[in-house]
Amino acid sequence: MELATTLPGRSGVRNSPLLVLGGDASAGNVRRTRSYPLRYRLMTGFNAVPFGEFLCSGLTKTTVDVLASAELSQALVLADGAARRLLPDGVLEEGVSLLSVPEIAAGIAALPSAAARCRAERAAGLASPQPESVGESYSRAVFEFLGFEQPVLQQVFRDGAGFIGRSDFWWPRQSVVGEFDGKGKYVEFARRNGISAEEAVYREKLREDRIRALGHGFVRWGWADLTDPNKLRYKLLAAGLRPRP
């Protein structure tokens, strides 16, 4: 956890005085290990934003900080989320990157480290409001790590019978459709449509069959493949995708 301070003598890492409540195993483990130190960062001249009972750095400030310091997989999850928030507010236009947002561009330009600016610009340039889950955003970072080109997001497919659906990912040059399959995808679909999870899986299989019948390759993966990128690499290669030269 990071806290802002305006006092130079307070910067650095401190043990947390926070009390973690709860009776489950996770809460107990945190209390035993106390693995939640507080990192005080010297931050002056920014406007705190109320969030519940806390005062926090605003969305654009937080976005710049994370993009500059986190690995691409974490940074892109937050960057995509920021893009989803900024788009309906009119701060971000459809089809342009976060670098078009003046506050974010200025924040990145003001970073003291060239390496931090490079990390932040990379994540901001890839950010999109279209991914609909953390898994989709994380997948995009893994594509980048593995050297595959970034796909088209939320592509609509139709056949002679009409609308089939939208795919998470679509590589038109290589005619391959990709889907991230987290458990919540089927559970949430079933909840929204009032059907069983089994029926949701069956309908998804029918949708896949119709897309395959159009002559496209099709590949699915889950969290286990993202946490071991070689597994995802093999799946993408088997579906017909090839990394960038």
Radius of gyration: 21 Å
Q: Indicate the percent of residues in helices.
A: 40-55%
Task: Give the DSSP E fraction (strand runs of 2 or more residues).
Answer: 15-25%
Q: Which structural category fits the helices and strands?
A: alpha/beta
Q: What is the CA–CA distance across the termini?
A: 40 Å
Give the number of helices. 10
Oligomeric category: single chain
Basic shape:
globular
What does the largest sheet look like? 4 strands, mixed
The count of β-strands is 9
What letter string, H or E per element, gives the SSE order?
Answer: EEHEEEHHHHHEEEHHEHH
Q: State mean pLDDT (0 to 100 scale).
A: 85
Describe the model:
With 245 residues, the chain is an alpha/beta fold. It has ten helices and nine strands. Strands 6-7-8-9 form a four-stranded mixed beta sheet. The longest helix is centred in the last third of the chain and has 17 residues, at 197-213. The two termini are 40 Å apart. The model has no long low-confidence stretch (mean pLDDT 85).
